Amino acid sequence: MRTLITWLTMLVVTPFMALLVIVAGLVGVRNRPGGIYDWGPRLWARIALRVAGVRLVLHGGDRLASAAPRVFVSNHVSWFDIFALMAILPRYRFVAKAELFRIPLFGPAARRAGTIPIERENRKAAFQSYEEAARGIRDGASVVVCPEGTRGESYALRPFKKGPFVLAIAAAAPVVPVVVHGTREVQPKGSNRIRAAAVHVHFLDEIPTTGLTYEARDQLADDCWRRMATVLEQEYGVISSGGSGRRDRSSARPVVEEPVPNP
Q1: Is the pLDDT at 245 greater than 70, yes or no?
Q2: Cβ–Cβ contacts within 10 Å for residue 74, how many?
Q3: Largest pairwise CA distance in the chain
Q4: 19-73 residue pLDDT tens
Q5: In angstroms, what is the C-alpha Rg of the chain?
Q6: What does the chain look like in DSSP terms, one character per residue?
Q7: Is the pLDDT assigned to residue 263 strictly greater than 60?
Q8: Which of 14, 20, 21, 94 has its CA 20 to 30 A from that of 32?
Q9: Which domains does the chain have, with CATH numbers?
């Protein structure tokens, strides 16, 4: 019954919210802090969580107090990861796979709200998307990325793609590792069934990027991966292996060299 109610609710709410955002863009409503492009997606996500019976448990919420733009790096195992982050985070822009932007109403609305499409199989196009994200950071909006690239079958972390960390270095924005746990119990990958559950969202200490160069991207990714893997293991007994994909993991912190020029 919960699954049916959730899907019916979202079939009604999603087109309404999408049209609201699209119309706002057509009539020239500006994308400003606290405006419709911020509260519209947040309200949509909170409705989804409410009807699905999700109880959010926030850890490290005090780390959201700063208004400075940052790059939030999250694990990804369920669509409800996205709903949880949208419901909690302040002003932000998501980086999402380009396929979503082909969905009628949803795609144009997501673009109006500032979501950035990324062609995952096209490296050049992907880095152009990250350049757009860097401009968003300089305009004062944080960016949310899932460096594993797609949803996983388990909570164990997979290797990270390096684009999000190149973005953070280029924008001189701190990286905030985020661990989401409990969303597989709500709706795992490959299933349409929805169950009520508690979802825990952990915001970890930010990792500064000031003074880092492009060459530090692997070490930055590895530092972020290790911090997230540690929380998953200590809090939930989830063992991740393989690291972030780097060959040399002897250094725990990125090397500070000359600054990377903004794109």
Answers
A1: no
A2: 23
A3: 57
A4: 999 999 999 998 888 899 999 999 999 999 999 999 999 999 998 888 789 999 9
A5: 18
A6: -HHHHHHHHHHHHHHHHHHHHHHHHHTT----TTSHHHHHHHHHHHHHHHHHTEEEEEESGGGG---S--EEEE--SSHHHHHHHHHH-SSEEEEEEGGGGGSTTHHHHHHHTT-EEE-TT-HHHHHHHHHHHHHHHHTT-EEEE-TT-S--SSSSPPPPPSHHHHHHHHHT--EEEEEEESHHHH--TT------EEEEEEEPPPB--TTB-GGGHHHHHHHHHHHHHHHHHHHH-----STTS-S----SSPPB-SPPPP-
A7: no
A8: 14
A9: 2-236 (3.40.1130.10)
pLDDT digits (tens, 9 = 90+) for 185-232: 999 999 999 999 999 999 999 999 999 999 999 999 999 999 999 999
Structure tokens belonging to residue 10: 């979202």
CA dihedral 40, 174, 258, 249 (to 10 degrees): -120
Q: What is the pLDDT of residue 9?
A: 96
